[in-house]
Specification:
With about 230 residues, the protein is α/β, with parallel strands linked by helices. The chain has one domain: Alpha-Beta Complex (Spore Coat Polysaccharide Biosynthesis Protein SpsA, Chain A). It has eight helices and seven strands. It has a seven-stranded mixed sheet, with helices on both faces. Helix 7 packs parallel to helix 8. It starts with a strand and ends with a helix.
Length: about 230
């Protein structure tokens, strides 16, 4: 079965096209890309994707957040591929095609589990705020759920088909959505963690994550969500 890859994208650049081309060279997946209200500067990127094979581009008229984009992709996949899980990854080439394929393969082998591609935050190239932000969130997640998670903020995840409806009902439309997903999964699924390459380009300047407002929403969601 051909892998299904979902990519939420907000103001992507040439990295997204390079990621798509490299994935196709390696394992030729079906792609669902969500344009989350990007500025016109990214129009050429999305136009090229629309013209490519096995790639569907879904559009938000305005920026709604990463969580909302994941839900849009999940809803489409549930409708068009009701028996398939999918792999979600970021648009900035922070996750390597080989690692994306590894997560996809693991999902196929473990169709009832949530698969996480986890980074090594002890490496010297990891920005300070990313290293300590993840450590603090991982501790809070363990206290909340009793489950150890090495990388609570990873954007590389394999979503089993039976979990997609749960994903659509979760709260949160921005980065806090991802922690809500993990908390829900900790209650209902096995979580398999696969080591992946740790990539941060230019101190992660391309990230849309706001250290103050998004962190606040993440911890607010963790406190509010029942376990």
């Amino acid at each position: 079965m051909r892998s299904i890859i979902a990519i939420p994208a907000y103001n992507p650049d040439i990295h997204l096209l390079r990621l798509v081309n490299d994935m196709r060279t390696m394992f030729d997946p079906v792609l669902v890309v969500v344009n989350d209200g990007s500025a016109s500067a990214s129009d050429e990127i999305f136009d090229k994707l629309r013209r490519s094979e096995r790639c569907t581009v879904l559009d938000h008229e305005e920026n709604m957040g990463k969580g909302a984009a994941i839900k849009t992709a999940a809803s489409y996949i549930l409708k068009k591929h009701p028996d398939s899980g999918f792999v979600m990854t970021d648009a900035d080439y922070q996750h390597m095609p080989a690692d994306i394929q590894s997560v996809s393969n693991s999902l196929e082998e473990n169709p009832q589990s949530l698969i996480l591609g986890v980074r090594d935050f002890s490496q010297s190239n990891v920005p300070f705020k990313s290293r300590w932000g993840n450590r603090i969130t991982s501790v809070a997640f363990k206290l909340k759920t009793g489950v150890s998670c090495k990388d609570t903020q990873t954007g590389l995840r394999g979503i089993p088909s039976g979990f997609i409806k749960d994903c659509l009902s979760l709260p949160g439309n921005r980065f806090e959505y991802e922690i809500c997903m993990l908390i829900k999964a900790a209650k209902t699924l096995d979580i398999i963690q696969i080591p992946i390459k740790t990539v941060y380009e230019d101190n992660n300047r391309a990230s849309n994550f706001n250290a103050v407002t998004d962190s606040y929403k993440i911890y607010k969601c963790m406190i509010a969500q029942k376990f």
